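User: Hey, quick favor. My workstation is busy. Could you predict this chain's structure for me?
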Amino acid sequence: MEIDPKYSRATRLRISDDRGVISDIDSGVKVNPRFAIAYYNRGLARLQLGDYEGSFADHTRALVIDPELFKAYHYMGMAKYRLGDYTEACNLWRKAVDHGHEESYELLMDLCKFI
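Assistant: No problem, here it is.
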């Protein structure tokens, strides 16, 4: 089966080809380095690939560009948790909860009870 190149990005997103998504987003960021959602999405892909430091950096950059992109705190917390920085993960999930992110609330209650 051959994929029409004009649909390659959408296909990669659907079949979760995180490396392909990262490559596509890298190209997009070169064109528009102020596109916050691109950094956010690349951060998600990096998180899936286990690049927790890269994920954290991308989500941080997304928030610098768009301070209203509150859900980035959730994934920054996920990255910090995977890196073993549990206190910082809980602090980031608290920020996400403060901005209404319910998934972060569940993690906060489950994983941060004693921190």
